[in-house]
Amino acid sequence: MTDVKKLVEEYGDQIIKNRRYLHAHPELSFQETNTAAWIRDHLTKAGIELMPGITGNSTVGFLKGSQPGPSIGLRADFDALGLTETNDLPYKSTNPGVMHACGHDAHASILMAVAETLARHRELVRGTVYFVFEQGEEFLPGGAQQLVKDGIMDHIDYMFAIHVNASAPLGQIDIHDGVRFAAVGTYDFKIRGKGGHGGFPHKANNPIFAASELVNDIALIPALKCDPLANCTVSVSYLHCGVEGVANVIPETVSMGGCVRVLDTDLRQSVMEEIERLGNSICAAHQCEVKTTMVYGYPACKNDASCVSIMQDAAGAIGITVIDCPPSLGAEDFGYFSEQKPAAVAWFGMGDPTGTHELTPHHNPKFYLYDEKGLPLALEYMLSVYLKAANTL
Asked: Transmembrane ranges (predicted)?
């Protein structure tokens, strides 16, 4: 039996150094050229072959074992967010206005540690293991979509990932069987009527009335067009028109839009189509022109039962407490992978359990991870997941 703890000890504190380097040098979605170069350099130096034909900054390395086995994919994203870090840390962001506030720096360092460890111990590899480093997870349409278009899932039988969770203490992991995250879509309407003077509304065609009807009717979609047991939210998130304080000018244009989140990708399709239908018909009824933009974002992310079982067993074997949280209307572009092949992503607690640092939400300028013990435990966990999957599936 492989002594995974010994492998982690052998790797030392390099995983912490790597994460802190990446944290200090964040890059926005689809702009991660330096991070991608860092990843490719480390993989190449480890003797890991890079897969050709991968678009943009995404990078896929792979190792082939001498023994037969499945093709296992392990995924990490590595883009950052447009936030200004307020933590006073020696490794705080050196890129003004950009911060790793969701833990993607940790994901990349964990996967790199797994890759370098397996490269040193190729006798542990069965079949082929793919190290999938994904650009642009935070920004629609998401880096995973292009990786699927590049054909990565034609090579992979099963895909696994963890997402660190700064809001949950170290030693706890959420692994949910079934749909875990929502399908997401966005919509935007550019409505044009006819501007005019407030004293002569009959000579104008106020587009605000069309927009007002749309706000009300879009908000009713979950109640009137969806199964009452379905989890669906439709938000109107912005409405821009007129000039504040100028009361006697009827505007010519209105811009409005929002988002859809639902746990069923097929239901998202019908909800988005209903929003588009309402936009076109209501604006036509008010004799307004409308330019409609519908963006179909990440599909629902569904965890496969066999992959969930692997991840649960691996957690139990190293003393991590497994919990099962209900599905969330948050979104994760890992759903593109889970549409193609059996896959699972788990939420890995990495908040400080000592209370020295408060547990923090994600996408927050004070985002903080418990590196010293959390990263080595995450490495132990992902190595355990891979070994269990390679020897079981």
From this structure: none
